[in-house]
Write a structure and sequence with these properties.
The protein is built from no helices and seven strands. With 89 residues, the protein is an all-beta fold. The protein has one domain. The chain is globular.
Length: 89
């Protein structure tokens, strides 16, 4: 089951070539989640702004969608999939 969250999160990243980053862990509601797998990435337009979204998986497994605003660089947790129903696509 998918849960729509849309909350700001702090994300630890690995810097890749150019301006690209890969999320390694994030803090949500006071808990730190280590990312163990990465899935589909996409660019979407939200309120006339470009947002880079990536599906990630943490232990459990639990799948999350993290999105970073291209201009402000702010990360948001957009969605999460409940335990038992999680799969990277």
């Amino acid at each position: 089951m998918v849960e729509f969250v849309d909350e700001a999160v702090t994300v630890e990243v690995e810097r890749l070539a150019g301006d690209q980053v890969r999320p390694l862990a994030f803090v949500w509601r006071g808990c730190r989640y280590q990312i163990v797998a990465w899935g589909r990435e996409s660019e979407v337009e939200q309120a006339s702004r470009t947002v880079h979204c990536v599906l990630v998986q943490t232990a459990g497994p639990v799948t999350w969608e993290l999105c970073q605003d291209a201009e402000s660089r702010e990360w948001r947790l957009r969605r999460r999939w409940s335990r038992g129903k999680s799969r990277l696509v």
